[in-house]
Amino acid sequence: MNHMEFEKMLQAAVSGSHEALEQLFLLYAPLIDKHSKVDGQIDEDLRQYILIHIALNISKFVF
């Protein structure tokens, strides 16, 4: 994925596209999982918390 494709996907997610938001989640899954670990294991509640906050705040991105 190049810079322009990423920017288009991000703009779509900010505009409310559920598909684009899902693509962002997949793209950043390794990073989300890394920050969802407690004692070396993924905490699913923490992972969901992070995903919800991304979804709720994606609209704050401004281009």
Structure description:
This protein has 4 helices and 2 strands. 3% of the residues are buried. The model has no long low-confidence stretch (mean pLDDT 95). It starts with a helix and ends in a 6-residue tail after the last helix. It has a two-stranded antiparallel sheet. It has one domain. It has 63 residues and is mainly α. Helix content is 67%, strand content 6%. Helix 1 crosses helix 2. This is Helix-turn-helix conjugative transposon-like domain-containing protein. It comes from Blautia pseudococcoides. Pfam families: HTH_16.
Outline:
The chain has 63 residues and is mainly α. The chain is built from 4 helices and 2 strands, in the order H-H-H-E-E-H.
Query: How many extended strands?
Result: 2
Which range best describes the helical content: under 10%, 10-25%, 25-40%, 40-55%, 55-70% or over 70%? 55-70%
Q: Biggest sheet, strands in spatial order? A: 1-2
Question: What separation lies between the terminal Cα atoms?
Answer: 19 Å
Which structural class matches the secondary elements? mainly alpha
Count of individual domains: 1
Secondary-structure blueprint:
Elements: H1 3-14, H2 18-27, H3 29-34, E1 37-38, E2 41-42, H4 44-57
Helix pairs in contact: 1-2
Pfam families: HTH_16
Protein name: Helix-turn-helix conjugative transposon-like domain-containing protein
Domain Helix-turn-helix conjugative transposon-like: 9-61
Which keywords apply here?
single chain, 63 residues, mainly alpha, two-stranded antiparallel sheet, 4 helices, 2 strands, 67% helix
